[in-house]
Write a structure and sequence with these properties.
Layout lengths: L2 E6 L12 E6 L7 E3 L5 E6 L6 E7 L2 H16 L11 H5 L8 H20 L32
Antiparallel strand pairs: 1-2, 3-4, 4-5
């Protein structure tokens, strides 16, 4: 696991001649619900609602596959209101949405999705980066002056 080094001034020392304290901060996770093993595999798991137990979602070669497995489980556990890594893929998960799935059924669905994405990425058929949403999310540049052609005054 990569770590970043952060330098902060010592709170107990007022002298500027002492070196700053080094703190190790964990590197950012690329997606929710996943982590990287020491040997490079990506794993996904999720907590069951109102329980202390976790549902193991599998081990994957890529973080995208692990994140897709996590998204599948989140969608089946919490519905469309769950926080997804890829919200634009929610309709894909909704196609086979069933109420009151068991932990084993959720695990099975999530591992199927994750394994499918791992195979697609290994074969070079899936993007290595997150898929952009098909929704038009055009945000205008607020620092740009409007041109006369785009003016809506009549």
């Amino acid at each position: 696991m990569d770590t970043a080094v952060c330098f902060s001034p010592s709170s107990t020392s007022s002298s500027s001649s002492e070196p700053p304290i080094k703190r190790k901060l964990p590197a950012e996770k690329p997606y929710r619900g996943i982590r990287m093993r020491k040997w490079g595999k990506w794993v996904a798991e999720i907590r069951e609602p109102n329980k202390r137990s976790r549902i193991w979602l599998g081990s994957y070669s890529t973080p995208i596959a692990a994140a897709r497995a996590y998204d599948t489980a989140v969608f089946h556990l919490r519905g469309p209101s769950g926080r997804l890594n890829f919200p634009e893929s929610a309709p894909d998960y909704a196609a086979d949405l069933q109420k009151d799935l068991s932990a084993a059924a959720i695990r099975k669905k999530a591992t199927e999705v994750g394994a499918r994405f791992d195979a697609m990425i290994a074969a070079g058929r899936a993007p290595a980066a997150p898929i952009k949403s098909a929704r038009p999310d055009h945000k205008p540049d607020l620092n740009e002056y409007p041109s006369p052609e785009s003016s809506e005054e009549n």
